[in-house]
Amino acid sequence: MTASSQSATPATIAQQNPNTTLSHKLLLVNGANLNLLGKREPDIYGHMTLADIESTLIKRAAAHGIELICRQSNHEGKLIDDIQHYGLLAEANAQIDAIIINPAAFTHTSVALRDALLATKKPFIEVHLSNVHARESFREHSYLSDVAVGVICGLGHLGYHMALDYLLTHTYAITLNK
Predict the structure, then answer these.
(1) Cα-based distances in Å from 89 to 4, 97, 144
(2) Which of 24, 45, 86, 157 is flagged as catalytic?
């Protein structure tokens, strides 16, 4: 999408009329303890809150006609329910096209989360704020990495932005102006 064609995008229409539904949807899933961002171990996870990260991503996605649906839970089953709902069970016009997921500690434990992601047949990117490979050895194994489109770790909140940019260009075929 070129800059000149952006004036008629669904996002522009939605900004002018908040009742307008954006035609494409992307799911952002955040796992256990990520509700504590900005408070929990800021030397590892940074000072930005999850709300700050979500707000920035929502605006960026909407500028390209994409509705970003954000979900966070400390409960594995709730995350699975959300992935199943938006990936498979919702009405066709409410289903998502792709997923950005920071599974947090569920990365290292959840076969069920992996199965839910695979069931959707939607591309997903795994994101971690910290470099999990430079931490405790138990954090080095992921049940998701081998089936993810990509994994971004160790770049703090910028990892989410990189995942969004990748999906905008590869899933939605949007040309980004850097």
Answers:
(1) 36, 13, 21
(2) 45
